[in-house]
Amino acid sequence: MRAIPIAVTALVAALTLTACGDSGDDGGDNDTKATASAAATAACAIGQVALEAGPASEAPAAGDTGIVPFTITNSGDQCTLEGFPGVGLTAGDTSATVAGDEAAQPEKLTLAKDDTATFTITYVRGEAAGAESLDATTVQISLPGADTTKDFPWSYGPVAGKTGAGEPDATVSPFQRAGD
């Protein structure tokens, strides 16, 4: 008769352990699934997004500030944007990198298919043929985590240089969800 209570106790213990494992309350399985899902979302790439410039608010004269907005529309699988886009200005054999806006706080954005995000290049117009200006003809854009770039014509006038710094007086904003 003693075997029945031991068997019942073993069965109850087994059922209790099985119930705990199936409930998902321990978070172990859920944490693993969330981590796998986050890892599966790759960085957005130039080939899977549409990237458009403008319309710009061009700086009319030397010393004035202009802005050139860009819109990114995801046309592929869900992807992420984090940080700042890579921006380079070129004029013939000369090129310069545009720095991220130090005052801005970038956020990680996840873009589903057809979602959009924006960023903006803010620049100070320089003197035409000025020693401290870059008479840019092309702006080159890249996305974080990718080597591919897309070129756009730069028709917004020369970009002033930062005094003594050898870099353009321009910044790029972090990615922002469109409409925010």
Contiguous uncertain segments of 5+ residues = 1-28, 30-38
**How large is the radius of gyration?**
27 Å
Q: Based on CA inertia axes, which overall geometry fits?
A: elongated
The CA-CA distance between the termini, in Å, is 72 Å
Helix content: 10-25%
Helix and strand run:
HHEEEEEEEEEEEEEE
Oligomer: single chain
Mean pLDDT: 81
**Count of DSSP-assigned helices:** 2
Structural class: alpha+beta
Q: Count all strands and give the number.
A: 14
β-strand percent reads 35-45%
Largest sheet: 9 strands, mixed
Give me a quick take on this structure.
This protein has 180 residues and is an alpha+beta fold.
What would you say this structure looks like, in words?
- The chain is of the alpha+beta class and 180 residues long.
- Helices cover 19% and strands 36% of the residues.
- It is built from two helices and 14 strands; from the N terminus they run ααββββββββββββββ.
- Strands 2, 3, 5, 6, 8, 10, 11, 13 and 14 form a nine-stranded mixed β-sheet that branches. A three-stranded mixed β-sheet has the order 1-4-7. Strands 9-12 form a two-stranded antiparallel sheet.
- Strand 10 (138-142) and strand 11 (149-153) form a beta hairpin.
- The radius of gyration is 27 Å and the shape is elongated.
- The model is unreliable at 1-28 and 30-38 (pLDDT under 50).
